[in-house]
């Protein structure tokens, strides 16, 4: 298994663990007030901002730990360059990830048009961000395994 495949697997597992852990942390803090109260909007705004910051920090830490463990176990350094295949795979994964997020964004806006509570829009946006991250990583893993 190549470095890129291992890195994709670690990224996939960490994305799932980060999302599930954060959701379990934030679920008990959900306000009991009305669906469109100011406290509900404050909750969802803080949910998105804190999830973004938490995810970035934990991904950086996991990346550093992964590189240390990879170097200790294999004796190899992280590749310092990306060839055309790596760039092509990254572009394809980004395209799939953006497509999934845009579909989720449109569904979230559609939920507002269909008079759903604003919480539904936030949940769809958060889930589409998570699913787009997972599909992007799975696309990378697939292309590194099967080719372009």
Sequence of secondary-structure elements = HHHH
> What's the pLDDT, averaged over the residues?
90
State the distance separating the first and last CA atoms.
17 Å
Helical percent range? over 70%
Rg, nearest Å: 18 Å
Tell me the number of helical segments per DSSP (H or I, 4 or more residues long): 4
Our count of domains comes out at 1
Note poorly predicted spans.
none
Give me the count of strands.
Answer: 0
Structural class: mainly alpha
Features:
4 helices, single chain, 148 residues, flat, mainly alpha
Structure description:
The protein has four helices and no strands. The chain is flat, with a radius of gyration of 18 Å. With 148 residues, it is mostly helical. The mean pLDDT is 90. The two termini are 17 Å apart.
Summarize the structure.
This protein is mostly helical and about 150 residues long. It is about 80% helix and about 0% strand.
């Amino acid at each position: 298994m190549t470095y890129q495949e291992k890195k994709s697997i670690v990224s996939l597992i960490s994305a799932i663990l980060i999302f599930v852990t954060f959701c379990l942390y934030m679920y008990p803090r959900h306000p009991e007030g009305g669906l469109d109260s100011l406290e509900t909007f404050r909750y969802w705004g803080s949910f998105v901002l804190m999830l973004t910051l938490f995810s970035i920090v934990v991904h950086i830490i996991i990346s550093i730990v992964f590189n240390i463990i990879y170097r200790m176990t294999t004796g190899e350094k992280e590749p310092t360059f990306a060839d055309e295949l790596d760039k092509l795979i990254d572009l394809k994964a980004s395209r799939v990830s953006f497509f999934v997020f845009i579909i989720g964004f449109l569904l979230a806006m559609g939920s507002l048009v269909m008079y759903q509570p604003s919480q539904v829009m936030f949940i769809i946006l958060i889930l589409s961000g998570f699913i787009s991250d997972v599909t992007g990583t799975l696309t990378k893993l697939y292309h590194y395994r099967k080719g372009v």
